[in-house]
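note to self: dont lose this again. the chain is below, predicted strucutre after it. 566 aa total, dont forget to put it in the shared folder this time
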Amino acid sequence: MAEYSPPVVRTRRAQMYFPFTEAEIGRLRRFGEVRSFDAGDYLIRAGEVGVGMAVVLSGRIEVTRRDGLGHNEPIRTYGARHFLAEVGQLSGRASFVDARARTAVEALIVPPQGLRALLVAEADLGERIMRALILRRVGLIEAAAGGPVLIGPPGHPDLVRLQTFLARNAIPHRVLDPAHEHDADALLTCVRPRPDELPIVLCPDGTTLRNPSEHALAEKVGLLPQLDPGRRYDVAVVGAGPAGLATAVYAASEGLSVVVLEARAFGGQAGASARIENYLGFPTGITGQALAGRAFSQAQKFGADVAITGVVRRLDCSLADGYALELDDGVTLRARTVVVASGAEYRRPPFPGLHEAERDGVHYWASPVEGALCAGQEVALVGGGNSAGQAAVYLSGKAARVWMLVRGPGLEATMSRYLIDRIGAQPNIELLTRTEIDHLEVDETGALCAVAWRGKGEAEATRREMRHLFLFVGADPCTGWLSGCEAAIDARGFILTGRAARPDATDPPALMTSLDGVFAIGDVRSGSTKRVAAAVGEGAAVVAQIHAWLAARAAAEPALQPGAAA
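---
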């Protein structure tokens, strides 16, 4: 069988697969150890923690994928001076593929910790390797090579939920429709799931899950690492949007121990943006996921621990030497300082029918998964900010018509000019100003089937049959987990920092909350600028303030020095 060749491989093969010179291999040797394998030995098994990076010194290694249905498909064969690894090995995640020696093999094995050290210490080699690692992950995603297999009917709400979760976290996966895939239908016949147990998920390690939660799936694909409750981190970052990831990158690169806890997916709301065109340095634009994915890899490169679906239930402020973060799964982590970067979430307006329709047909982001669902259909979109504009433009390339509903008189006060012009240039975007949703209707299965809206002063509502509604309406801060600590907030619930939080203090840190050692950045902070660049800037700035805070504490109590054992 031929090896897979997704678009990224055809266009960027030389950057993804290149041989090292003998001199370069000599430079790599100090980061690993040489091991020998007999023909037929596995270097890596799907579902098990990978070895890191394997540089082939002699022999050949074949990489294949198992799809959980009894199929084993070739991906690539590596020969002498080539290396086997992808970006998941930066943090020692479980492998999505099998790697087996086709002949007797001698390989230099560089473990995850050595790989991270290599990327930092060897700048020119590190740049080439890092680029290859990221592109290889892109190739796996494009080819749906490795990762879990989801089996269920297209459009099933729980299938869409899991697809979106995996896609937003850059996890390669496949989706099989049992109505058209004989093997998938045969498996369902064997497993006999109840309707509420769909979709069935086949994991790389051979485990079968029935309609799992995102948390359970995250554990299986390596997004939720084993965190050490006995460790005390210098910095705990709650939220992996642009602000939280920037904090992780700058703090970890400066030697602070960092853990990042994210409830859903890296990138936050920005990660769901179809295209960001006004971010400095990207004149052709970049998807929110690509930008966030690079930052996510960068944070891991410098050694930050990142836990996706690490949901913080409560912050314990009673400790004398820092804070404890209690997670939903029962784990408690300790940290000297906490950075609140949990962002904000779109509101759920109280119009009739929303609760009934939310499970099937109401969306709060517009990713390729949602784009495929509404291809050729009419959709409604509510909102007038940049996220709404980006979503409308993206959906206009998929849907037959996009009805864009805005409560105000226009877009000028809330949206960037380039997006307003782009919306005006799309013939299938219908902008309705001074208009709000009147009610939603669902069919007998509970799926959205009609949307009704009413313009200001209109006696009758306009009703149109459609199965998809996108909501980008306002935002409420994600601060429920802070309720026991009573951080100072403004009238809308956003966290106060600096002088506003500490009116009686002399020159308080600009990003510190009313709680000592707790900082707030990004969209959750009162008065923040709702832009990716501003969030990244605050992530960089807060690290300097954390250093100053820790230094002041260490001067008073040496045991609190950064990196000191708990």
